[in-house]
Write a structure and sequence with these properties.
The structure holds 2 protein chains of 2 kinds. Helix content of chain A is 36%, strand content 27%. Chain A is built from 10 helices and 10 strands. Chain B starts with a helix and ends with a helix. The chains are: A alpha/beta, B mainly alpha.
């Protein structure tokens, strides 16, 4: 089978602290893969180890393999900027560039990476990305206005558009709804279901209900260890591990 | 007790008002366009004159110093902010903090040895060089603060776009930190425009020529004030007062601009 991403024996340390412990899993294409677990279990770290964003932290050290299309992102001859472009990333706090306009927020990535030939191609790409993120109709007349004028939910969809504009293969989402109200959250969840037709989505969440609602496959991470992984319906109805069971029925934060 | 503290606070503010009132009451009447562009008057004739060469010199020296010290200081500050965990950053920071306190006459002496003595001539470049060294720590430490103030989540957003570090820092994050960086450059500019000691041993101070090249002597407003105020001629004393008013105005303008820039940040 052709996997979207394969993680083999991944270990991460912050200084002396071992935060991801020998984690391995494979994610099929065009699904939503959720990584759930209590706060501080290493979910966000795991996500950042995949697109090597973790290397912004000088104290982080990674061992193991992360393969996309068979290419290990940690092998010596792989360019880190190429790795990051394979992933679109959406963060816990909506983080559009506040001083840039709505248009520029989406256009920046393609422009800086030379993905487009001219302005009209860029316009088209920005429009497409905003449409895919269900934001176009709300902002099409305000493209020049600063991104900071949007609501929290709109800002998060703008960040999704920014990620999509890079034409990534995989979308990484780090608790994308943790700071949104229920209405805005459900919009993002609907959007994710739409996006998996075209992309593979890996979402990190501390909320097992969310994982149950939207994911096809789910992994349970606890204190840096992968406790259980499988089809979401199986993990939630017949968990094999007692810890997983405790977590999915809500007896563990 | 509170009364004592409040009055001390008021007393500490008195000098600045006293200085402003004093300088403008003596110098304000010289603030005309001709004063800014004309040559200084001969010491004893009846003609009025100006500070043209010194103003031109100050502009050239300040801009050069900001260009040289600004680029070095900017990248140093960026390094200090983004590589703060390295030993090099740790020690650089300590050196910069020492440099802030460094007697600027020593820096002038150093510039004399490096750029004046070998060329056997006082020259503009040596002055700009000395001023650059003076302002580097101010710019570096302020740029460091500007980059440090960028939220981590925006840094992640920038790098997640798959761009190289130079592009992330200079094309994306610089505009987030632009006001802090601009303030840093303005502080450096005010410092460079007002410093006298580094110029004493480097540029000599021409009186009657505007600009003869970077390898030639040049004048600057602070140096003109120093030289003219010490001269025995009443006419030159007046020019010194006028020059002081010009210098004070420039400094206050830079200060006001930098305050406006900072205020905009908080909105």
């Amino acid at each position: 089978m052709n996997w979207a991403i394969e993680v083999n024996n991944l270990n991460v340390w912050y200084g002396d602290k071992h935060v991801i412990k020998n984690v391995s899993f494979k994610v099929p294409k065009n699904i939503i893969f959720a990584v759930m677990g209590p706060s501080g279990c290493g979910k966000s770290t795991l996500l950042r180890a995949m697109n090597r964003l973790l290397e912004l932290n000088p104290y982080a050290r990674v061992e193991g393999q992360v393969k996309i299309n068979g290419i290990d992102v940690y092998s010596d001859n792989v360019d880190i900027t190429w790795v990051r472009r394979q992933f679109g990333m959406v963060f816990q706090i909506p983080n559009p560039f506040p001083h840039l306009s709505i248009y520029e927020n989406v256009a920046l990535g393609p422009k800086l990476n030379g993905l487009v030939k001219d302005r009209s191609e860029l316009d088209e790409l920005v429009k497409q990305a905003l449409q895919q993120a269900y934001l176009w109709d709300e902002v099409k007349n305000d493209l020049k206005k600063p991104a900071s004028m949007l609501s929290g939910g709109q800002q998060q969809r703008l960040c999704i558009a920014r990620a999509l504009a890079l034409k990534p293969k995989i979308i990484l989402m780090d608790e994308p709804t943790a700071n949104l109200d229920p209405v805005a959250s459900s919009k993002i969840e609907e959007l994710m279901l739409e996006l998996k037709e075209e992309y593979t989505i890996i979402i990190v969440t501390h909320n097992p209900q969310q994982a149950a609602r939207i994911s096809d496959y789910v992994a349970f991470l606890y204190m840096g260890e992968l406790i259980e992984i499988g089809e979401t319906s199986m993990v939630f109805t017949r968990p094999r591990n007692a810890l997983t069971e405790k977590y999915v029925v809500g007896r563990m934060g | 007790m509170l009364g004592v503290i409040s009055s001390l606070a008021i007393i500490s503010a008195i000098p600045i008002f006293a200085i402003i009132i004093n300088i403008y009451s003596e110098g304000a009447r010289h603030l005309t366009l001709n004063f800014l562009i004309d040559l200084p008057p001969p010491p004893v004739s009846g003609k009025s004159g100006g500070i043209g060469p010194a103003l031109v010199g100050s502009l050239i020296l300040t801009l050069l110093a900001v260009a040289i010290g600004g680029s070095i200081g900017f990248f140093t500050g960026l390094y200090l902010s983004e590589f703060s965990h390295t030993r090099l950053a740790h020690y650089t920071q300590i050196f910069l903090q020492i440099m802030v306190e460094f007697p600027t006459i020593i820096i002038g002496l150093f510039a004399y040895m490096v750029l004046v003595a070998p060329l056997k001539r006082f020259n503009a470049l040596a002055g700009a060089f000395a001023l650059s060294i003076v302002i580097i720590p101010y710019i570096a430490l302020n740029v460091r603060e500007a980059y440090r103030s960028i939220p981590y989540t925006l840094k992640e957003a920038a790098f997640s776009l798959g761009v190289s570090a130079p592009i992330a820092y200079l094309r994306i994050l610089l505009s987030t930190a632009r006001r802090g960086v601009l303030t840093a450059l303005l502080i450096g500019m005010a410092k460079a425009a007002g410093e006298t000691a580094p110029l004493l041993l480097t540029i000599l101070g021409t009186t009657f020529t505007y600009f003869g090249g970077l390898d030639q002597p040049i004048n600057a407003i602070p140096l003109l004030i120093y030289n003219f105020a010490l001269s025995p001629y009443e006419r030159w004393h007046q020019v010194a007062w006028g020059a002081a008013a010009v210098l004070l105005t420039i400094t206050l303008m830079i200060f006001i601009i930098s305050r406006l820039v900072v205020r905009e940040v908080k909105v």
